[in-house]
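Box 3.1 A note on notation
Throughout this textbook, protein chains are presented in two layers. The first layer is the amino acid sequence; the second is a token string describing backbone geometry. Keep the layers aligned when reading.
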Amino acid sequence: QTQLVESGGTLVQPGGSLRLTCRVSGTSISVYWLYWYRQAPGKEREFVASITPNSVTQYIDSVKGRFIFSRDNARNTVYLQMNNLMPEDTGVYYCKLEGNDWGQGTQVTVSS
């Protein structure tokens, strides 16, 4: 059974940084695309970033230049480095494996 567990979310001030981690068990991530999504209060879940097996990344426009998505296949783990955080980045961040396997989410709150 494939499981994804996110961690690293917390309260941070505007302009701060966080690194989210998603550890995957039950399958090797090396051949899969992975994704980060987020859901702000009262809004629908939205795509944030993707990474291919060859570590080619894509981002929504609002996080380009601030977020970095990376993977460590040996650790079966992916990371989302988030810099210069803004209040509009607040939400629950979910990791998703190619297909339909999701983590439980980790809360990121950007507020002074």
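The radius of gyration is 13 Å. The chain has a mean pLDDT of 97.
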